[in-house]
Design goal:
This protein has three domains: about 70 residues, 2-Layer Sandwich (Uridine Diphospho-n-acetylenolpyruvylglucosamine Reductase, domain 2); about 150 residues, Uridine Diphospho-n-acetylenolpyruvylglucosamine Reductase, domain 3; about 100 residues, UDP-N-acetylenolpyruvoylglucosamine reductase, C-terminal domain (Uridine Diphospho-n-acetylenolpyruvylglucosamine Reductase, domain 1, Alpha-Beta Complex), CATH 3.90.78.10. α3 packs across α4. The chain has seven helices and 20 strands. By secondary structure, the protein is an alpha+beta fold. The structure holds flavin-adenine dinucleotide (FAD) and NADP nicotinamide-adenine-dinucleotide phosphate. Flavin-adenine dinucleotide binds next to β3, β8 and β12.
Length: about 325
């Protein structure tokens, strides 16, 4: 077991915030994990599980032990004429697994290309993009309870997946270390190209026969053109979730804001948070080293040496102004640590 003390986490989060972990352990094997968990439980030390740090905003230094997940490996757990069940260890990079699926002509996750982070974090917020969510291909995951050290399999239903949500953000928040995730990928994939600008991008790429490879390439091209690269400007993707409002509330707002975009949901309407934030005048806002991205108002950014607490305060101001103007409560998507 190799514990580092007073470890700077600057290189381990895409926001580029230099929080300091009291203790830090890189986990490469399950044996190492067990050893650290036993040590932490004996000393009653707090535990924090991290993957790629692409959905975390540090607002202070971290007490206890930060575990950096580096469990690697992939295997085919089941296969028949129609599907392949791929079991991926949780420290694998999500996008590498997408590229593997594309290279092996098994579909289902190509719309989730280029999402940063690890396999193990994907179920936490049920990652989603371009009309696909992890839950659509998810079979099961294996996790270990951080305190009882008991292993448990969670089925799709047991994960209680919802829009950017799962049981690991609610009832079981901070209780488990996810060890592996198994996904069912299709040997006869049906490409989903109707969402956003995928079809337009495919046309520009002059693709005649759409394949999972061309969809993945299109998503990668769109994302590279629209989203700030965390290697250049610190960010954690969308800072807020897209809010859902009742149809009555929507009708009332639509009288005043005729150009307000919306999407039907089971319970009402989803309004793009980026539009609400832009209408409140925040798009491109900058104060010192932090602000709101000038191309995508949903993304808060650290231009250089911003503090996590500055970005959190900015998010509070944005929430207040959207509440005041539209009577809509924005919810943060990013995990505040
Ligand atoms: P981390 O940031 O390290 O952790 C996030 C949370 O998961 C923390 O609460 C952590 O404790 C927990 N966690 C991590 N690993 C484990 C584990 N093994 N066991 C238990 N808990 C764990 N998200 C989307 O859904 N769709 C997108 O399209 C999208 N685009 C993005 C674009 C950019 C440029 C960026 C920076 C982020 C984007 N995100 C998107 C957010 C982010 O990439 C995802 O949420 C991703 O799954 C986070 O992975 P991570 O390994 O970096 O997790
Ligand atoms: P976009 O295409 O400009 O669309 C704006 C918003 O409208 C999206 O957030 C999306 O909601 C919603 N939307 C668009 N078409 C829709 C449809 N046909 N049906 C239902 N809702 C629709 O969005 P973008 O910012 O470029 O992002 C593209 C995709 O990548 C989105 O799915 C987005 O969630 C995802 N993404 C996520 C993050 C993150 O950090 N979570 C970061 C970047 C991109 P949804 O968000 O609900 O899909």
């Amino acid at each position: 077991m190799n514990i580092e003390f007073k470890k700077h986490l600057l290189a381990h989060n895409t926001f580029g915030i230099d929080s300091i972990a009291e203790e830090f352990a890189q986990i490469q094997t399950e044996d190492e994990l067990m050893e650290v968990l036993q040590y932490a439980n004996k000393n009653q030390t707090a535990l924090h599980v991290m993957g790629g740090g692409s959905n975390i905003l540090f607002v202070h230094d971290m007490k206890g032990i930060v575990l950096l997940n580096q469990l690697k490996g992939m295997q085919i757990a089941y296969e028949d004429k129609e599907v392949v069940h791929v079991k991926c260890m949780s420290g694998e990079v999500w996008h590498e697994c997408v590229l593997w699926s594309v290279a092996h002509h098994v579909g289902g996750i190509e719309n989730l290309s280029l999402i940063p982070g690890t396999i193990g974090a994907a179920p936490i917020q049920n990652i989603g993009a371009y009309g696909v969510e992890l839950k659509d291909v998810f079979v099961e995951l294996e996790a270990i309870h951080l305190h009882t050290l008991e292993k448990k399999i969670f089925t799709n239903q047991e994960c209680a997946f919802a829009y950017r949500d799962s049981i690991f953000k609610t009832k079981e928040k901070g209780n488990y270390f996810i060890l592996s995730v198994t996904m069912a990928l299709s040997k006869q994939p049906i490409c989903k190209t109707t969402y956003g600008t995928i079809q337009q991008e495919l046309n520009e790429m002059q693709v005649d026969a759409v394949s999972i490879k061309s969809v993945s390439d299109a998503v990668i091209r769109i994302r590279r053109s629209k989203l700030p690269n965390p290697a250049e400007i610190g960010n954690a993707g969308s800072f807020f979730k897209n809010p859902e409002i009742t149809t009555a509330h929507y009708e009332q707002l639509k009288n005043t804001y005729e150009d307000m975009p919306s999407f039907d949901t089971v319970n009402g309407k989803k309004i793009p948070a980026a539009w609400l934030i832009e209408k409140c005048g925040w798009k491109g806002y900058r104060e010192g080293d932090f602000g709101v991205h000038n191309k995508q108002a949903l993304v808060l950014v650290n231009y250089n040496h911003a503090k996590g607490s500055d970005i959190l305060s900015l998010s509070e101001k944005i929430i207040s102004s959207v509440q005041e103007k539209f009577s809509i409560q924005l919810e943060r998507e990013v995990n505040i640590w």
